[in-house]
Amino acid sequence: MDATRGTDNTPTTSAQEGRPLFLMSACLAGTCCAYDGGAAKEEVAPGADARVRLVCPEVMGGLPTPRDRAEIVGGDGFDVLDGRARVLTHRGEDVTEAYLAGARRTLRIAQASGAVGAVLQDYSPSCGCRQISDGTFRRNRVAGQGVTAALLLRNGFQVVAHHEYDASIPFPPASAAPPD
Q: Is 33 helix (H, G, I), strand (E, B) or coil?
């Protein structure tokens, strides 16, 4: 799941080596790793010359597929990183450590691979870039980042929500610059 892949799901070629590499939520590429056992409802096709490494922080953190739906309770991903919020399932199980482990593993992959950033599934408690659920399990969305998105941002990576990504523009787009 976390191999470097082109748009046809084959390993990238040396001709692409000069292109920036970015991470992408595996569910966006059709991998059935979402909490409900499916893929993202809106798949994303990277540009023909894109160098992409697929990741699923939740699975990489040790969670099964399918798994109980989870939300951040008490804040957003930055609050989870700082110990002020937790990630809980709708049944009340605390899965914070799995979310942190997956975020850390994703960060290590980004650093080791030389990735410039990531295109992530918005609204997710891991990958949410602009919006996440509010922690009430009523599917109410609020501004905020998931745990992995927050960790990548905190470490200087550019993060783009799936609905902001434009395959016709080289990654990273100018608007995805991390805050100073």
A: coil
